[in-house]
Amino acid sequence: MIELVDATIGYPRKPVLGGVSLTIDEGDYAVIHGENGCGKSTLLKTILGIIKPLEGTVACSANPSEIGYLTQLNPLRFDFPATCAEIISTGLRCKGSPFSKSREVQEAVWLSLGRMGIEDLENADYRQLSGGQRQRVLISRALAAARTLLVLDEPTNEIDVQTTQALFTLLDQLNQGGMTILMVSHDAQAQAHASKLVHLGGDGVRVEEGRPR
User: Fold this and answer.
1) What is the Cα–Cα distance from 126 to 9, expressed in whole angstroms?
2) How far apart are CA 38 and CA 89, in angstroms?
3) Tell me: the pLDDT tens digits for 12-63?
4) What's 197's DSSP letter?
5) Which three-class secondary structure string do you get for 81-125?
6) pLDDT tens by residue, 54-70
7) Longest Cα pair distance anywhere in the chain, in angstroms?
8) Vertex 74: Cα angle to 167 and 149 (nearest 5)
9) pLDDT digits (tens, 9 = 90+) for 95-107
10) Which strands make up the sheet holding 2-11, listed edge to edge?
């Protein structure tokens, strides 16, 4: 599903990682880890086509309309005037315009709210939420969009232990159902759930097998 061959990634005049060769197969549950500033988020953005590789090749066969993506940094202003359901619907651009009220969009929103256990926040004002609640809404936004590939950048930021454990249980279920998961996480628990571990460091990229599949 994802293949990088001898890729140099980063920004013009500021390469971050060089000589990256990596394969993520359909059905993998891959967790990327490493020290701060080593290029984890940059790697995700390159895989998703948000930034282009400086050298080498990067290919992702997943249809963009079937990818759910959670960024590390909140992409929305904290004073953004919308309900949680409306925020989640913006991840479903392929189903119509943002804030669409179509039945398909509403069903996807309701399902993702339920998966994160925040049905009671459906009509809540996003501006009034705590940091942990906002994170759960943004994870729901990624879940609503994901069909074949779910990409998460530090999803456990600002959420409590109970919510973290519930999230990992949900991700296991989605993966067992055929969803490919690619996650950046500093959380040691995340690595225990992965079928493939990708370590970024001064020695480049090292790939290890995780839990038995």
Assistant:
1) 35
2) 32
3) 889 999 999 999 999 999 999 988 888 999 999 999 999 999 999 999 999 9
4) E
5) CCEHHHHHHCCCHHHCCCCCCCHHHHHHHHHHHHHCCCHHHCCCE
6) 999 999 999 998 999 99
7) 50
8) 50
9) 444 555 678 888 9
10) 14-24, 2-11, 55-60
The separation between the first and the last C-alpha atoms of the chain, rounded to the nearest angstrom, is 17
Are the C-beta atoms of residues 148 and 180 closer than 8 Å to each other? Answer: yes
Q: What distance lies between CA 78 and its chain's CA centroid?
A: 20
User: How far apart, in whole angstroms, are the C-alpha atoms of residue 150 and residue 28?
Assistant: 11
3-state secondary structure of 176: helix
Count of C-beta atoms within a 10 Å radius of residue 48: 18
Q: What predicted TM-score, i.e. pTM, was given to this entire model?
A: 0.91
